[in-house]
User: What shape does this take?
Amino acid sequence: MIKLTIPTIEDIPNAALEFLDEVGHRKIFAFDARMGAGKTTFILGLLKAMGVRDFEGSPTYSLVNVYDTEMYGKIYHFDLYRINDELEALDIGLEEMVYGDNICFIEWPEKVKDLLPHNTIWSYISVDEVGSRTLTIDK
Assistant: This one.
């Protein structure tokens, strides 16, 4: 288990680079946290660290944003907040995307836990009383 402290939003770029160093060449990442904890903001920091320049923002309504990168290939960013059950996730092609050879960042992964590969990296974001975030990576 690895813990990264993110005191302020300005610290996200460094935390994103440290996260990428820690997880190596893994592909599927589940981000579990309460609403407003910073899942999307951190994932956007990861995308920027991976060379993405044209962000589409949160995929809350589209459910998934797809980014093509030179170094990492396709990257999928899922926001499954609006998914009601695993059948809906299957309908959008989640299984094909997470079992392909692509990187996937998944918000609200608990809604599709049984569909995710066994080697998914689970990360948890907690917020303290002064607004500092702690990202715990369960490798």
In short: The first strand starts at residue 2 and ends at 6. The chain has one domain: 2-138.
